[in-house]
Amino acid sequence: MSKGPHRPNGHPPRRALAAARVSATLGRVQRMILKRRATTARRFRKSSDSIRFVVLGVLLIDFAALALVNAVIDGSLGGYWVGMAPVFGGILIMIIIVRVARPALYLDWIALGVLEVILGLLLADGPFVYGLSFLLPLFLCFGMLALLRVWIGLTLPPGKGAASLLAGGLAGLFCLSWMIVDQFIISVVEPDTILAVDLLLTGLAIVGFGLSLDHSRDSNSRR
Predict the structure, then answer these.
(1) Residue 172 to residue 152: CA distance in whole angstroms
(2) What tens digit of pLDDT does each residue of 10-52 get?
(3) Domain carrying residue 159
């Protein structure tokens, strides 16, 4: 007789139950994304939206370059303070999104700017030696920012530059991992520099998004 574990008849194995739960969760997430795409499909239809996003991306790249130059010359760039790039970058995101969206409010995009500003202010007001009580809010805010970018990229309809923003969000998660490893293991790169790299990649993603909007509008006009 077999001496394997007894399983009552009619009860599926635990692995099958776990797989069913995962499948059900993924199905709910997919339905949420599709429902959200139906809402975001009505966004960014004005002819000026494309150029505004390209300008926003270029300005973010400029602020990121300023922070990187400051890091290269060992913090001796006159007039620059730690956290300046994400603070001004976040303010720019909010200003341009409000102008693009009016009279509506795109709260997910505005939240991107708010989180950038919070990150910059955390760094600007941070201690000389970073402790856990300072790093945990920084990591949490940075993670929320990266995940929000991923969510925005996933919930944009195909053909509206979703890939650019999704790539920017994934790059943000990479930069967050880099920051965590650096703070606890290597201790070589300052958080302000890593945030500058993230802002640079965000700027490139937004430039790509703006160009994709222009391309999708041209494609629709030919139909």
Answers:
(1) 13
(2) 555 777 766 667 676 777 777 777 777 777 777 888 888 889 9
(3) 15-222
